[in-house]
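User: Show me a protein chain along with its predicted structure.
Assistant: Here is one chain, sequence first, then structure tokens.
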Amino acid sequence: MFSNLSIIFKKYSVPALFFVMGVALFISGATGNQNTMFMISSIMMFLAGALSILYSTGTFKSTLLYLFGGLAGLAAIATLYLSFNSVKETSVYMENYELCRGKSIRNLEDIRFIQKAYAEANGVYAKDWETLIDFAKNGTVPYVESEGSVPARRINEAERDYLVQFGLYKKGQAIDFNMTEKEAYFLSKWTNCPEDLKGFRRDTLQRSLYEMKFTSTSYVESRMKAGHGKFYADSLPYIPFTGGREKWKLETVDSLMIGEDRMPAMMVSGKIPFAKIQGTDTETLSFGTLSSPDLVGSWEEK
């Protein structure tokens, strides 16, 4: 009796195991929204178990088994092909996600830089994309052109008396510290300019924002190295990888009460067309808020 049970166990245990596992995996896949490859694999396992059981009982001819085995082989090849394509598609998707996210963050950082410069010049942020783009192309920003360095010495009494007119000293005030940048600047303009300040220069000039920021060697090289391409001011409003169909949402507040001061606020936000995990909700990127002057980016909070 035990000998018969041992034979039956050896004969049916493996086919039965494949059959049960196939059924369990199929049910799990159907209820858990698994992908096509998972479902095909579970069906193949189920069929392999079922055919093995039938063959073991003698009710299934070997010719039919070979036929179904051949079909299963073809199905396995098809599954491998689908699996390869799926891995490849996932790899391409993740590459596009990383590139899109990187370009989007740079896009938002450029918008933030331009808006800060615009606010310094106008007291408020640009309210629309046309104004922002125009400023990016034609706006200017203050630039300090400097030559020479501040001498590592104290000023003398004659120099102190000259600086009285600028409110830096009082008549007869003690000279306790080395010369400052501001003192050096005024003394360099003096008709009796000290020898060690001749050639000292600190002039604030207006320079093209576009040339200063977007044509600088470091900026251009950084874009190219990251694969972000050349900067185009006209592309600023558009979310990368949307073919120009989707824009960042630009919102501004001219005067926000912060304590006893009034300050402008801004928020720029939008959804990129990719998710960190394929198949989930696409990622939202933004910077700023309309409730405070804070301009921190969502990518900087982590």
